[in-house]
Amino acid sequence: MTKTVGMMIGLDIGGTKIEAIALTGDGEELWRRRIPAPTEYEGTVRVCAELVRAAEQETGRTGTVGVGLPGTISPGTGLVKNANSTWLIGHRMDQDLREALGRGVRLMNDANCFALSEATDGAGAGGRVVFGVILGTGVGGGIVVDGRIIEGRQSIAGEWGHNPLPRRTADERPGPPCYCGRQGCVETFLSGPGMERDHASVTGARLTTREIVARAEAGDTQANSTLDRYTDRLGRALAGVVNILDPDVIVLGGGMSNLPGLAERAQASIAPHVFTDIPCLSVQRHMHGDSSGVRGAAWLGADLRSPGRGDRDNRGV
Fold first, then answer.
1. What is the pLDDT of residue 1?
2. Where in the sequence is the domain holding 269, given as residue range(s)?
3. CATH classification at residue 222
4. DSSP per position, 217-244
């Protein structure tokens, strides 16, 4: 089959699945596949390579390749670090994927991929500075400026979830313990498990986030109070980001972003804590949903203006 150039392939590696997508240069979806994720390193590399080959064979096109990781590449060692898919940690995944595919590959944290997706053709499109927020089992973020991901010197730019919750009240100190070894991190309050823990500590009832929302919608005052505390903390935490980054748009993603009206409530709760007279920030819910990460990985592979730290010597993707 004769192949034509002009496609972007993205891979999103998760703990339970690997998703692949192929897009045109205009962002039109050509092909998609989702498979269970192997729980060992060599299998992960093999499956990623197989997905790329399948995308090209079935579309008849060659493509650039970008990969979203549940971690990042250490600038100091070139090895994967901070990955909750722990079997990836300590490996030179960028190098191994390049060798498996015979071409350059860009790898980056999945929150950065989410931010790039939403800034490119999602809820943050048109904004010069976009902060993409992940609110799920963990809390992460990514920064996109003029269409380019900002990684930072240590590849941790946007990791607002491991700052302390600002302006903690007496009953919020010292805060829940975090897996990073500290207490009171934003993540311990604003993750899904954080909301569930907060509700249980106040009411004694152990409920899921879905159950809390359902009870709030039914008029349960305790559940509504939990949502109010969550929104207030989200506003305080994001205001700290706004005061430093001053983004045009904040895009909310992850499972918690689907809480009814959260974007509007967050925008209102940020305003009192921002160092300005008239806040002109826009807070939006994601446009591409669960597909944002894999779409961002595809855009990542095509964006050669800011090569990822794990692929510095492979600019010719």
1. 40
2. 123-286
3. 3.30.420.40
4. HTT-HHHHHHHHHHHHHHHHHHHHHHHH
